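ESCALATION

Customer reports they have been waiting on this structure for their group meeting. Please prioritize. Original submission:
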Amino acid sequence: MSGDSSQDTVEQRSQRHSIVPLGGPQIAADGTLRCRFEMKYQISESKAAAVEHFIQPYLSPDRYCKLQPTGSYPIVSLYLDSPDLKLCRESVTGKKNRFKLRIRGYNDDPAYPKFFEIKRRLNFIIIKDRQRVVPRDVARLLSGGPLPEQYYSTEQESLKQFLFYLHCLNARPLIQVRYIRRAYEDNSETRVRITFDRELSFRMCDQPTITLGGPGWQRHSINDVILEIKFTSRFPAWINRMARCLDLKQQSFSKYVNCMNGASSMRFCSPDSYGFDWD
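Update from on-call: job pushed to the front of the queue and completed.
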């Protein structure tokens, strides 16, 4: 696990990959897959290259990747949890029906929105609700301040649900997670989306901060590529062929839990005091 010695490289790459707004704030590309099935894999760079080659006839880079010279873009998420880390604990123990609270950003432009997200797992189905929020309102909403007038409409139910969970759990900012994503998708009925996430990093954070830059980032020890396959209805036959051909082994992988584990091993936090068993 590398520390500050790798920070400059990661910071520079994150800024180079930042999403450029498309004529104003846009919903992130994966927002179209609100209700989906999701499979995750940890794979080597060589296997990631083989997967990218295999999917070329079926999928195209998403619109944000197409805008970037490198074909990838950064994501940063601020995870919130209760004082006893209830949401982290439920992921560690594999609870079937669970959720996470996070606020996601794609660049450090103060005019670009942040996204309040509830990511639910209902048995094998993933449901993601999100609401864009003006950056200046983030701290006010997390502190329990009054809901600004523009968030009163019925279209803001996702935000109201997020704030309800926040209050019930007494949740607070805990850790930021950052990585570089390359994404492919199609427009078929199955809405397949495949993402490759690299350079997983984290920093402990008890403030309503969602930024790619700044000090304190630590690279996670994992060097593998995190592959995610997402689809909305039937499992495409070509994905099954790819999994067999490339010997892909599905496994559970939570960026939040793994980064909390990494932070614990580096003594940045102590989830062990809550009786966690990371194994």
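Sent to customer with the following note: The domain at 4-18+50-269 is CATH 3.20.100.30 (mRNA Triphosphatase Cet1; Chain A).
Escalation resolved.
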